[in-house]
Amino acid sequence: MKHMKKPRLHSTARVRGPTAYGAIAVSAFLANGQNAIAADAKAAEDPAVAALTQPTSSIDIGGGNVSSSSYKFGEYNGLEDKGGFAVGDVDISGGGRYDSDSVTRWNLRANDVGLQASDARFDFKEQGRFKIDLGFDDWRHNLSDTYQSPYLGLGSTDLTLPSGWQKPIVPQVSPTSLNYRSLSPVAGQGSAVSPSGQVVAPTASQLATLDGIVAADTGAFHPFNLHTVRKQGEVGFQVNLSPELLASGSFRHEAKTGYQPIGAVTSQVQENSVVIPNVVDNTTDQLNLGLEYAHRKFFVQAGYYGSIFKNNVSSMSWQDPNDPTKTASMSSAPSNHFNQFNLVGGMNFSPGTKLVADLSYGRAEQNQSFLKDDSLPIGLPEISANALVVTKLASVKLTTRVTPKLSLFARYKFDDRANETPVATFAFYDVNIPKGATSSAFNTALGLLPGTLSSNVNIFADRPQSKKDNAFSLGGDYSLGHGQKLSGGYEWEKIERTCDGTWINCSSAPESIERTFHGDWHAPLFQDVEARVNYGYSERRVRYDSNAWLALVPMAGVIPGAPIVGATTGVYGYLQQTGLTGFGPLLGFPTTPLTGNAAIFSPNNNIVPQSLYGSRDNVSELPGMRRFNLADRDRDRLRFSLDWQATDRLSLTNNVEYDRNNYLNSLYGLQKSTNWAVGLDGTYTLSDRLTASAFFTHEDQTSRTAGDGYGSNTNVAFIGRAGNTIVDGSCYTTVLERNENGKNDPCLRWDSNMHDRADTFGMTFAWNGLLSHKLDLSTDLVYSRARTDIAVDGASYSNNPFALKAPAPVLPAGTPAVFLVPAADLPAVVTRTVDVRLSGRYALTQKSDVRLVYEYARTKVDDFAYQGLQLGTGTEQLPTLQQAPDYVVQVVALFYRYRF
Amino acid sequence: MAILRRTIAVLGIIWFFSASAPPVLAGEPDASLHGDQVCTRCHDETESRPVLAIYKTAHGVKADSRTPGCQSCHGSSEAHVTNPKGSSTRPPVDVDFNPRGANPPEILARTCLNCHQNGQRAHWEGSEHEHSGLVCTSCHEIHTHGDRVLNKVSQPDVCLTCHTTQRAQFHRVSTHPVTAGEMACSDCHNPHGSVGPKLMVKNSVNETCYTCHADRRGPFLWEHSPVAEDCTNCHTPHGSNNAPLLKARTPWLCQECHTSDHSGPMNSGANLPNGNATTLGGLLPLGNQAPRSQMNGRNCLSCHALIHGSNHPAGARFSK
Lengths: 900, 320
What we know:
- The structure holds two protein chains of two kinds.
- Chain A is mostly beta strands.
- Chain A contains eight helices and 38 strands.
- Chain A is 8% helix and 49% strand.
- The longest helix of chain A has 21 residues.
- Chain A starts with 20 loop residues before the first helix and ends with a strand.
- The N terminus of chain A is likely disordered.
- Chain B is built from 13 helices and no strands.
- The radius of gyration of chain B is 29 Å and the shape is elongated.
- At the A-B interface, helix 1, helix 2, strand 3, strand 5 and helix 3 of A face helix 1, helix 5, helix 7, helix 8 and helix 10 of B.
């Protein structure tokens, strides 16, 4: 029977992007070393046998030059800086001969020594008795070399602004509101609409203020490179305690340091933020221990895995550019640890029937002390989360070859993630949000004096979410003969999601069931042509709870007190009684005044006021919103492949993948996604020494998401002045009509359609054995173009900037006070990369050769996201001046290899 | 008692059906060098394929009593050795690992699994690769010093020969450092079979990711539920045009699940710094223009930066 085996790549280099250069030496050895040895073998019989049977060692040393600095080119390969570099590889093996009495073998392998992308491994073993291995790995991930910031102390956990920092404002717009557009002399010095409704240029005084801001603030920006470095050390062992009993273990220590960009909010309600270099300084220690007993008929494996993550950074703090007397802070990831015990056993009832069972128990814990700051008005209910997640897994799988043609399998799997973190209630104000003037309705309920908490406080409870997964699978394969095979299977999966300790159900999807059917046909179509088709259909149905979000806000179960008057139930009770969600009635402004609980909890038919459930802002979702990972879904999955050995020299392969997800009951949120890909591969062997291969892959992904920018119902009939009543829109023509239907305005419904397409093309030529088998040449080319298009349908309202209160005049007759601005598609995000690599190896002697490598790498990214990071763009976000990757880098390197 | 009887009955049924399974290849081959000479007197150093190179590998350490000989894996192959009919083309060996050979995959796999059945291969039977008809030698090179899949630098070349979509994804602007030689496919996947989904080395996708990203493990006081369930709800680990390894761009990725408060309104090109909503078609003077912050720069992640979870008492919005 023919097997599905794809044509091999002939050059290892072409699948890699910018990469380690020593690695090329290693991989080329692996690909070409045998040719060199075969060449050596011709010299003499005994040496030829020895060359084939004795381990070959090699040392590579080399160096080169990088034409330009680029963080993106050097993202992972250690070649981010322009200039020269030296690099070396080692692959040394030793020990006894194959035909000796010695079972000792050892190997030392090191790649890219000299670059910050190096690794080394040493193995020593007495085969069949024990093995020890030591490893080291060091790699750097470059993130950005164009980031800039005005903060002092970059690289530390406490960032301050320069002493001369001036609050960025656009004084002709507002003398008090933070506005980062002032950092650009062009955007900041633009005209503005005055309170009297006139377009006015900034005054001389205002310009002087703006010039001062530019000089003090913009001038303070300075670069700071963002990157992380991981250094890993590992030691491992295996001991054959007996022919059947094997003990093993490994310990890995990793230290990660560096700086990653992270958003940092300075005012939650104003949506002001900065981007700071988050200090990364942590270690991860991982221990594996195992004991295996293997008999011909059965085996048992017991294992332990432990992981300790220690974060040496507890928090970051930064001064508020709006008011440097204030500081904001955020916590860093808590130190944590995970311990897991695993047991796997298998029984071979016969050569064709096997039962395998798994048991696993794990505990993930952290009890890092909470950070305390001014956002916590009444302190904390506990000093740490005492967080604990217990994971349990049990799986039983039976496979059996019933007849030579028929095999069956059955499997049951239980996977449980039980979050046992205690539930507690926390009262806090959002970042740099002062206590409001209105009292919270829950002071009394919390045993506090009236006015202790204001209505803009958040009274939230954590939701430790647990998930229980039961899955059954059945399936079988049937051979129809002549290499043809049919397969099929069915899977049933039930997932239950709960929280232990929350006052109501916390999960939007407390229960979901998914059924999957799949079929596969595999056959030789004609001589030297093999085909395979696989189709799967899944149907997931979810019991959805649209009010599960209330578990976050325990005050929803409390009747609000003063200053609220007349409520006879809490928010939760009101929603239960009325069958509503937090969005409230799907109605416009009521024609008659609401009374009682309706007036309190759905004022003007609007959403439930967030202060009535103890939140500063609205937390409820739209009715019909379904979180896609918890939503009803129909899924189709198709795979097709074709292998054709056209001639002895030419082989072709075609692959097609297609996935379609339909979230059929999702009125909002992700509704559909489709992914498909087509791949073509070909390899042509022109001669024993000349091969060519090429590949092309096209990927296509689309997704559609729906949403609604709903407003509030009011009976306000004008904007600014009473005569400003016209709406230039397709749904409503007057301000009153629009406002009365603020919640249900169809013009505010929107759809976004995201389309990702990528084409990747690669080619490789390898020409070996030139110049009397002394010269090998190879070339690799990879071209990739990825494009993301985002099309948006919908609209949003914008007020006419001249529709102001007195003293501004009423707008001229017929002038809209409100415009309906249609959506616009986003500029395409396009990434193009070209990587060309030329390599030549010349054998100096039987034991040594030189290798010359030239690489040309070009990448250009067009991404609109970077536009919002420049001076003069955002009003609320401090710019970073980061630039999209755009580089041309050439590398030339020369290596010398000695084999022994 | 009833449960015991049922269990015995089930095992008996299994035993009955398994009795009709194909027999193990018969014969105890001579695994010594002397035994190998049956083969190596022809398949010597002049062989176009370097079969003798197996002696450089663990399979060639003859002092280890477990080490197989040629015939341990390829069978006694009497017909191939003696060629009784004197054919110009010798009959094939009993166990031929040639991809177009006559042996079914289960025979080839069992040849290796006779010695290597446990450890990482515990879940081979019924695994995705086994179901696809792959055998050990589909990926492993036995007669070579330097099996490419055992070297993290060259391993992707083998895997990506079949997984061509992932090969293309590794050329996206945001990737894991697999093709850079810093990670291997086997750091995340066990190609021999796994109890986890998608051949993950650990019991779940998240447990696998946490081996390198333990800072995301928590457990956090404030969990972001799709994060705690499955990292691939938002991330596509092989490569993406949307950094960092996101399935879709923010803010639209976030809007696939969120409609409340300021996550609800539309984000479009009209909200970009030069967009129509920002400029009102030129009606709004430059000084008054204010591009929507949820749309620009780092958008949602400008404020909700701790999106994987927060341990701050005031971190329910993932801002602290």
